[in-house]
Write a structure and sequence with these properties.
Chain B: Pfam families: TgpA_N (PF11992), Transglut_core (PF01841). The complex is a heterodimer. By secondary structure, chain A is of the alpha/beta class. Chain A is about 45% helix and about 15% strand. In chain A, the strands form 5 sheets. Chain A has a 5-stranded parallel sheet. The chains are: A alpha/beta, B alpha+beta.
């Protein structure tokens, strides 16, 4: 990623929302704040912020104890916005997420009690421990950014990001997310174990008090929303769009994959690439941006064939191969 | 059935036949030997086809072909010697032996073109048939077409080394093309059998043979072009014949010092000298240089010529004797300037009819017969001489048989009858002296006589005549001394005084100068005509003699009844236009009708083949770079805005870098491509910065919002290209400069656009990379 930073261009756009400069500045402070808590995970942090600016949702997948929840909580804490955390358990009900109408004796009418979803940052912990019914309630609201209870539709606050963590599906007592629902997450990242050095540092700093305690918000919901607006205006040229479509097609025709990227994946890829370009201070998307975000954005939607699994190749491996092969189109005449 | 492989067989037959093309220069008439040869080659090829379809045992196929070849030869040439009209017997073998011996004799004794007698036809067709068999066996039966080049080359070289003037260089092209096609077919076939190895997901279905075949074709064409052009540029030594080479094998005495022609013994020793030391170096103003005379021999006794013991004197006026011709004879005065002479005393090389006072008084004298002798060595001198151009009528007049020239009319008693018999056969009673002389000369220069420095002792019917002149007239084989002797005796028998002059042929041109070596020693007859004096004739065949003088060349209709003599017609047709100038020797002087002065136009015309070849190769070589330049120019011209210009610049840079092997990965973005190129091309930080500027501009052009002005990156792109090119091997550099892919695409693009079939052109998908 460092190579993308050599051309920080200070293009200010006086239109609505933040300028690219402000995006850059704000994301840098956000990143440094998060990095102070999450040791040695810069790229994960960067991806998380990319997803935030691209109005997507983040799926954090890894074995227990690698800091998934910490990452989600840190991001929530850094933004001065409403943050809700939902611990998913097998007995969690959909209404716990979306909210419920209760009869108010005083006004003699049903009154809507918003659920955990009504927040800017929703941390869904161990999402695959909840029953599919509950999961789907969350996922619907993720897509539409609204909740409908008893015929009434309630809009969710903006910015809105769901950060769900889950354990790998082999673990006991889990309900793995169906493909269709995984598709709704813009990106999936895996935390991975920290390096020995980072783990040692972690013991020093986390030994006494939780680092979250002292963390102050560096930005607020309105600023984040302005940044999102700025990201939307990042220019994606026809060549880049073509490239994204080519990539999606390549996953669909690849013999190593049973299921390729969905059209939603194409959309998410473009949005994520825009955010990635904005984080590099650029007002236009490069194919390099697309390549950088392709694996987190697309890999979790792909289903490998039996042969690929037998060959111990993950969808990410297949996708990396495709990135090597799919030609970056030159502008058409 | 693929074993029979018709196309390969046909190519093999074609190559075999093409390789025999140069034989047409060696054996005449061509039709006589070409038809049976063609028949045998076709027979062998057909047999091969049939047998290969029947059996896989290769030796069996070859053995069958050999049998058929032998049987075919027997049927063609051995009729009358076959058992039951079909089966060859020992009698056939014996008959073939006789024929082949006969062929061998004529091949070694004749210079090209050898008349294709029965023996020669048998020999040639058998050899051609064998070549065809070898080619077919190696290339098709044993599937090693590359090896088939060896029999082909052998056949070609044996023809090439034996032609008089060397082969026309283009003659190598047709057989080489046929052979290359043979090799190419086999190679492509072998590659195809590997099967396709296109990787999964890659839509391009690549024929593995395709790229190799392209490389192969280029290599083949370049090699062929080089084979044609390079020999034209490299000077080569004078060609000699097989027979000459055999005859002269024992010569080889080098050594400098003075050269003195023996005036009594024969000249063979001098002819056999392989020394290339110049005897005489001179310049001449004469467009048709004459031989230079050093001695005169007028007495013939027992097969030996000697000079009569003339009294010597010095003319009172101190001038050379000059010509005896009457004033009416048309004449020009020519001059030779001898810059170096190693002719020993008292001999001095002078042209006929020398005039003036070139030598200091007291250093020279003249014999009664008019021969100039020196008494003091002189290595440099300039002599003027009278060159006579008499009309035929001026040769008239007879000589008193009892006059002062009586000695020059004496016919040798031992050879008299044979000489007179021959004279009666070739001349008519009413002939003028000139007609008689010309008829004698033309008879001796005719195809019935063979020039050879190895004298033959036995006649065809086994007799061994003692008298050398009789022996020559019977065996019809000899060199200048024998030819001259025969002419002199016949002329004397016809009443024309004659004597023998000994000297040198005009030698070979070396720039402006002519150089005479010992090999140029020569003897020729001089005949006396009352109004003209002593006139030179040239009875020795053109293989190794000068031209006959203009007055001694009969008009065309009078020339003998047989096929034309090898000289001057053989040399009148310049068979090898690429022959270097220094190689022009006496035996291929331009004919009378051609102006012999060497002008710039002549040089160009003589080297036209080479010049055109070189030009053609240069043009071919320049074609691809030109295409690349055109493509770049068109791209720049067609670029409607900055973005397209930058894009064109980038594509051009990528294409050129691809030429030197720097190809970014398939899926590389411009930025990744630039990193890969920078690493692979070992760019310095400055050059890398230039590359980065190019890529940044390209990204702006491609991906940023359109409309912003973009800098010109042509200079930066050029910097990168030069830097990358400079760090490659010279071979790669040359290839990149001569065969840029841009240029190839330009031309193929033009070709495709002009052909209506290629509607769905995939170049749109392929060319833009990165």
């Amino acid at each position: 990623m460092s190579d993308l930073e050599h051309d920080r261009r200070t293009t200010t756009d006086p239109a609505r929302g933040a300028s690219l400069d402000q995006v850059l500045q704000m994301s840098a402070s956000l990143m440094s704040a998060m990095n102070s808590v999450i040791e040695g995970k810069q790229s994960v942090v960067r991806t998380a912020i990319t997803v935030l600016l691209a109005e997507g949702h983040l799926l954090l997948e890894d074995v227990p104890g690698t800091g998934k929840t910490l990452l989600a909580k840190t991001l929530g804490r850094c933004i001065d916005a409403s943050v809700r955390r939902v611990q998913f358990t097998p007995d969690l009900l959909p209404s716990d997420i979306t909210g419920v109408s209760v009869y108010n004796q005083d006004v003699r009418d049903f009154e809507f009690r918003p659920g955990a979803i009504f927040a800017n940052v929703v941390v869904g912990d161990e999402i695959n421990r909840a029953s599919p019914k509950t999961q789907s309630a969350l996922l619907e609201s993720m897509e539409e950014v609204q909740v409908t209870v008893d015929g009434t539709t309630y809009g969710l606050p903006r910015p809105f990001i769901v950060m769900a963590t889950q354990n790998p599906i082999e673990m006991e007592g889990t309900y793995p997310l169906p493909e269709a629902q995984r598709d709704r997450f813009m990106a999936r990242i895996s935390m991975g174990y920290p390096s020995a050095r980072a783990e040692l540092d972690m013991l020093d700093t986390h030994g006494g008090v939780s680092p979250l305690e002292g963390l102050q918000p560096v930005t607020d919901a309105a600023t984040v929303q302005a940044m999102v607006e700025a990201v939307r205006r990042v220019h994606a040229s026809p060549a880049v769009r073509q490239y994204i479509v080519d990539l999606a097609h390549a996953t669909r025709s690849s013999s190593a994959l049973r299921l390729g990227a969905s059209p939603r994946a194409t959309l998410h890829l473009l949005r994520a690439a825009r955010a990635h370009a904005a984080l590099a201070g650029r007002d236009h998307v490069l194919p390099d941006d697309v390549q950088q975000v392709a694996v987190p954005v697309v890999a979790h939607r792909l289903i490998p064939t039996g042969e690929t699994q037998m060959a111990r190749r993950t969808p990410a491996d297949v996708l990396n191969d495709l990135l090597q092969r799919v030609r970056v189109p030159a502008p058409t005449r | 059935m693929t074993r029979s492989r018709l196309a390969d067989v046909l190519l093999g037959v074609l190559a075999t036949l093409l390789v025999t093309l140069p034989l047409a220069d060696l054996f005449a008439p061509t039709g006589a030997w070409a038809r049976p040869s063609l028949l045998l080659v076709a027979l062998v090829a057909l047999t091969g086809l049939g047998l290969r379809a029947l059996t896989t045992v290769r030796p069996l196929v070859v053995a069958g072909q050999l049998l058929v070849l032998l049987e075919g030869t027997a049927l063609l040439h051995g009729r009358g010697h076959l058992w039951a009209g079909v089966v060859p017997t020992t009698d056939t073998g014996a008959a073939f032996g006789v024929l082949l011996t006969d062929a061998y004799t004529s091949i070694v004794s004749y210079s090209a073109p050898v008349p294709a007698g029965r023996g020669a036809v048998l020999g040639i067709s058998l050899l051609v048939g064998l070549t065809g068999l070898l080619v077919d066996a190696v290339a098709v039966t044993y599937r090693s077409p590359a090896l088939a080049g060896i029999p082909l080359l052998t056949a070609f070289l044996s023809a090439a080394t034996n032609t008089t003037a060397g082969l026309a260089s283009w003659l190598v092209v047709p057989p080489a093309l046929a052979w290359l096609a043979l090799v190419g077919r086999q190679g492509v076939g072998a590659l195809r059998s590997w099967g396709g190895t296109a990787s999964a997901g890659d839509q391009r279905t690549t024929d593995p043979a395709g790229s190799f075949a392209t490389v192969g074709r280029v290599v083949g064409v370049v090699a062929l072009a080089a084979a044609v052009v390079v020999p034209g540029l490299v000077p080569h030594l004078p060609t000699t014949f097989v027979a000459d080479g055999l005859a002269r094998g024992n010569g080889g005495s080098g050594g400098g010092g003075a050269v003195r022609l023996s005036t009594s013994v024969d000249i063979a020793r001098d002819l056999a000298q392989r020394s290339t030391d110049p005897v005489l170096v001179y310049r001449t103003s004469d467009p048709r240089p004459q031989p230079l005379r050093v001695g005169l021999l007028d007495t013939y006794e027992g097969g030996q010529w000697t000079a009569s013991r003339d009294a010597t004197f010095v003319p009172l006026d101190g001038r050379l004797p000059g010509s005896d011709a009457v004033p009416a004879v048309e004449r020009t005065t020519e001059r030779i300037e001898v810059s170096r002479s190693t002719v020993g005393l008292p001999q001095v090389a002078l042209p006929e009819n020398a005039v003036g006072t070139p030598f200091a008084p007291g250093s020279w004298q003249v014999t009664a017969s008019g021969l100039v002798q020196l008494t003091r060595p002189t290595s440099q001198y300039t002599v003027e001489y009278v060159s006579l151009q008499p009309e035929p009528g001026q040769f008239a007049g007879s000589v008193d048989p009892s006059g002062p020239l009586a000695d020059d009319l004496a016919v040798d008693a031992a050879a008299g009858s044979e000489v007179r018999a021959l004279l009666d056969r070739i001349t008519a009673p009413g002939d003028t002296p000139l007609e008689t002389a010309v008829k004698i000369q033309d008879h001796l220069r005719g195809p019935g006589y063979t020039y050879s420095e190895d004298l033959v002792d036995e006649t065809a019917d086994g007799r061994r005549p003692e008298e050398p002149l009789v022996r020559f007239l019977e065996t019809r084989t000899g060199y200048c001394v024998q030819f001259s002797s025969a002419m002199i005796m016949m002329a004397r028998a016809a009443g024309i005084p004659a004597r023998m002059a000994v000297g040198f042929l005009p030698g070979s041109l070396n720039g402006e100068e002519r150089v005479i070596t010992a090999e140029d020693a020569h003897a020729w007859p001089e005949l006396y005509f009352p109004d003209l004096g002593w006139m030179r004739f040239e009875p020795t065949p053109g293989v190794r003699s000068g031209l006959a003088p203009a007055y001694a060349v009969a008009p065309a209709e009078d020339t003998g009844t047989e096929t034309s003599s090898p000289e001057p017609t053989a040399s009148a047709t310049p068979t090898d236009p690429t022959r270097p100038e220094g190689d022009v020797t006496a035996d291929n002087q331009p004919d009378v009708t051609v102006t012999p002065t060497t002008t710039a136009t002549d040089v160009v015309r003589d080297h036209l083949g080479t010049v055109l070849g070189v030009l053609g190769v240069l043009l071919l070589a320049a074609l691809t770079p030109l295409g690349a330049w055109l493509a770049r120019r068109r791209a720049r011209r067609d670029a409607r805005d900055d973005a397209r210009r930058v894009e064109a610049e980038w594509q051009s840079l990528l294409s050129r870098l691809g030429d030197i092997g720097l190809v970014p990965g398939d899926g590389a973005t411009p930025r990744q491509a630039s990193r890969q190129i920078g690493r692979a091309a070992y760019l310095s930080p400055d050059e890398n910065a230039a590359l980065t500027r190019v890529v940044d501009t390209l990204e702006q052009a491609r991906y940023a919002r359109p409309g912003a002005p973009l800098p010109d990156v042509a200079d930066d792109a050029h910097t990168v290209w030069r830097a990358a090119l400079g760090r490659r091997r010279r071979l790669d550099q040359a290839r990149a400069l001569l065969l840029p892919a841009e240029g190839r695409r330009h031309w193929t693009g033009l070709f495709r656009r002009s052909s209506p079939t290629s509607v769905e052109d995939d170049s749109e998908q392929r060319t833009p990379v990165g």
